């Protein structure tokens, strides 16, 4: 870095003086000529002196760009010299001074390696340099030169049927507008209500039945009865007779309950005069018939002989 005083000396330079510049230039030319003569005499060469090109300095003196000349600074500028014997500066110990480090290190392997090979051909600088990179493996690679069968094809998709997955039916091409107009409207299957409940008449709701059944005995028999199959068959709800049904061995008079049956009177009377346990359990095994029909209990189912015997005993 130049000393800061340089900047100062430039600012303190006197204004350019054409006479001073001219004198300096002439002095410089004289010195150069004397040097040339000295060199030529030393070489003993036969080369003739080059003709001096004379420039009419007087004519275009005013048009020349003023040149600055070194001038002595008006103030004392301290000078520094690395070679100077400065007692204030610490003397470098030449024994401890190491040569500047070089890279790579002298004992490294990298230094022993040969320089990288120079590219054979210059990289293209035209539009071809914008081409996509070469495919992999390279066309001249050993991998490509070897048997191409070593490159396995991608695995095929597993057969859906082998995985136990039902095959998806192929899509049909969309119908044209005319075909759509001719075609019947798409059938939208509304989910059929699985309920077969009937609309009960007012005053025949389950709550109405509960209150009625709790109020009185609806069996229409004077006492607990042993019902034989022949007796049961007569109570089928026809000809003004009550309808009796057997559920799990117990005989119930189902006639008072018929208008309250959510599944309808007809459904209930299918079991009239019979054992309705199987039908009942097929439709609604969760229904607690014992609690609902307690007031309708007639008796228990007995065999024909048992009924007779009991009657005889009575
Ligand atoms: C005395 C005996 C019976 C009693 C106490 C009884 C009672 C009931 C009750 C409480 C329901 C409503 C069930 C619910 O909402 O989940 C019902 C529904 C029904 N019951 Fe009975 N039932 C009897 C006998 C029968 C018999 C013998 C049949 C048929 C042969 C039958 C056919 C039906 C049907 C079809 C429904 C409509 C089920 C539905 O769609 O939700 N019931 N019954």
From TrEMBL:
Residue ranges, compositional bias (Pro residues): 113-122
One GO CC term on file: cytoplasm
Keyword hit for Iron: yes
MF term (GO), any: cytochrome-b5 reductase activity, acting on NAD(P)H
Biased composition (Low complexity): 169-182
Chain positions covered by the region annotation Disordered: 20-198
Alphabetized UniProt keyword annotations: Heme, Iron, Metal-binding, Signal
Domain Cytochrome b5 heme-binding: 224-302
InterPro entries: Cyt_B5-like_heme/steroid-bd, Cyt_B5-like_heme/steroid_sf, Cytochrome_b5/Flavoprotein_Rdt
Top-level lineage group: Eukaryota
Compositionally biased tracts (Basic and acidic residues): 20-43
Compositionally biased spans, kind Acidic residues: 45-61
Ranges of compositional bias, category Polar residues: 138-151
Keyword Iron: yes
A Pfam family per the record: Cyt-b5
Stated name of the protein: Cytochrome b5 heme-binding domain-containing protein
Organism: Aureobasidium uvarum
């Amino acid at each position: 870095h130049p000393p800061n005083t340089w900047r100062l000396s430039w600012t303190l330079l006197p204004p350019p003086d054409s006479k001073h510049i001219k004198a300096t230039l002439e002095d410089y030319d004289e010195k150069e000529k004397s040097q040339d003569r000295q060199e030529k005499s030393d070489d003993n060469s036969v080369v003739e002196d080059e003709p001096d090109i004379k420039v009419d300095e007087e004519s275009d003196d005013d048009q020349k760009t003023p040149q600055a000349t070194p001038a002595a600074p008006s103030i004392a500028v301290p000078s520094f010299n690395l070679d100077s014997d400065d007692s204030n500066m610490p003397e470098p110990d030449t024994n401890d001074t190491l040569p500047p480090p070089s890279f790579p290190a002298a004992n490294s392997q990298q230094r022993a390696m040969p320089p990288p090979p120079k590219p054979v051909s210059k990289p293209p600088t035209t539009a071809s340099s914008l081409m996509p990179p070469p495919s992999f493996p390279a066309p001249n690679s050993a991998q490509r030169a070897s048997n191409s069968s070593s490159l396995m094809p991608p695995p095929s998709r597993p057969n859906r049927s082998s995985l136990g997955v039902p095959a998806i039916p192929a899509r049909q091409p969309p119908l044209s507008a005319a075909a759509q107009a001719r075609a019947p409207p798409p059938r939208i299957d509304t989910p059929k209500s699985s309920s077969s409940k009937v609309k009960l008449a007012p005053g025949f709701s389950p709550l109405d039945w509960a209150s009625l059944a709790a109020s009185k005995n609806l069996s229409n028999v004077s006492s607990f009865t042993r019902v034989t199959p022949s007796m049961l068959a007569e109570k089928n709800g026809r000809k003004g007779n009550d309808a009796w049904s057997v559920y799990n061995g117990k005989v119930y008079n189902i006639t008072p309950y018929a208008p309250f049956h959510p599944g309808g009177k007809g459904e209930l009377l299918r079991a009239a005069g019979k054992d309705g346990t199987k039908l009942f359990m097929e439709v609604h095994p969760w229904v607690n018939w014992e609690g609902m029909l307690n007031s309708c209990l007639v008796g228990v189912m007995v065999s024909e002989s048992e009924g007779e015997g009991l009657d005889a005993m009575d």
